[in-house]
């Protein structure tokens, strides 16, 4: 029963992450429509080299963090299917 409850908690985390991702996509699309350039082009034109690398690192960390709840959810679901003895 505890595994089912934890799965539902992880689903809420995935849902909240999806909402944040949709907001960021919406803002990036508005930026592209209003300027004619995408986000990485504008960051390249506006920021110095060190800031660009920092933004790139933050984007990579965000992708990794976004994948963690999906991996945990999958691991939690498969744990109940297979018995390790």
TrEMBL record:
Its main location: membrane. The chain crosses the membrane at residues 12-33, 53-73. One of its GO terms (cellular component) is plasma membrane. It is found in: Membrane. Keywords: Ion transport, Membrane, Transmembrane, Transmembrane helix, Transport. It holds the Pfam family Nramp. It is a multi-pass membrane protein. It comes from the Eukaryota. GO terms for biological process: iron ion transmembrane transport. GO terms for molecular function: cadmium ion transmembrane transporter activity; manganese ion transmembrane transporter activity. Belongs to the NRAMP (TC 2.A.55) family. This is Metal transporter Nramp5-like. It comes from Gossypium australe.
């Amino acid at each position: 029963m505890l595994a089912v409850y934890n799965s539902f908690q992880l689903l809420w985390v995935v849902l909240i992450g999806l909402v944040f991702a949709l907001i960021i996509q919406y803002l990036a699309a508005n930026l592209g429509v209003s300027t004619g350039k995408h986000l990485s082009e504008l960051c390249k034109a506006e920021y110095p080299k060190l800031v660009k690398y920092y933004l790139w690192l933050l984007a990579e960390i965000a992708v990794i963090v976004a994948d963690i709840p999906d991996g945990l959810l999958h691991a939690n679901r498969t744990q109940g299917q297979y018995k390790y003895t």
